[in-house]
Fold this sequence. Notes:
Elements: E1 16-17, E2 20-28, E3 31-39, E4 42-43, E5 48-54, H1 64-73, E6 76-80, H2 94-109, H3 111-117, E7 119-129, H4 131-139, E8 148-152, H5 157-161, H6 168-174, H7 186-193, H8 199-202, E9 211-216, H9 228-238, E10 260-265, H10 275-291
Parallel strand pairs: 5-6, 5-7, 7-8, 8-9, 9-10
Antiparallel strand pairs: 1-4, 2-3, 3-6
Helix pairs in contact: 1-10, 2-4
Amino acid sequence: MLTENIYEDHFPGEGVKRAATNALSVETRRGRVIGYTLTPNHKEGELHPAMVMLHGFPGICNNHDLAMLFCNAGFTVVVPNAPGAWGSEGFYSFDGIIDAACDVTEYVHAPETAEKYHIDRENIFVFGHSMGGFTAVNAAARLPFVKGFIFAAPCNLGWECGHPETGFMEYLHTESEGFLRTNTDLVENARSLSVVTSFAAAAPSLCGRNFLLIECAEDTIIPKESLEVLRSGILEESGENRAAGESRGCGNGRFGNGVHRYVLLPTNHGFNSCKFTAAKTVIGYCREVMNNRA
């Protein structure tokens, strides 16, 4: 059950257990992944939708503020750190973060985990921001039980490899120092995966799935051209143009049946000054998907 008001504190009454933060530790094929889990206020026996949040390329931001808002709205929120980043074991690589994300999401879907964290196994969502969006797009084919995906300003790694003028390859060399542990050349790793992980290659696996694409109008990190393959497919379904902040897409188009939405937010790559709008957009989409009976 999702609350309509994410701006107010919700103090538990009689018979309601208080929201809590718990350490997360999951054994994956890429090593032990650590992070945290947020559980919302809940009554005994009450189940909540879950949100697995995949962070972007390791740096200074992991969207903890959005995680708290999702929890305040009624989600059980699972926030893993990618292998080799922020204390997780293993080594960071682009194929590795997809493997680990799948393993963590399967852990969330497991009956024992659902019981522990009061999760409705029929309503598990995956939110990926930036490189986490790349991860989510490429994990979709391996996670058939996920109710819906949120691709928030996602990085199309394959597209970036084919457009060196964007400076992304240089970015990989310079921005990760001190934030991650790797045993591979990330530029070569990206190039070796560029064809199979491009959004053009991954798009067929999204057919029939529910997903929301969020683009940021002032994004200087993600080129708008890199999202065209996802954006155009959604807009073709609606048969109309759209304005900033409006949602478009109705299913039965290029991506088949499903709730497909595209939203352009008037903000930058980090959703600065737009956190509440971003959170409301995601929560509203999840509510729509959960209420959809098609």
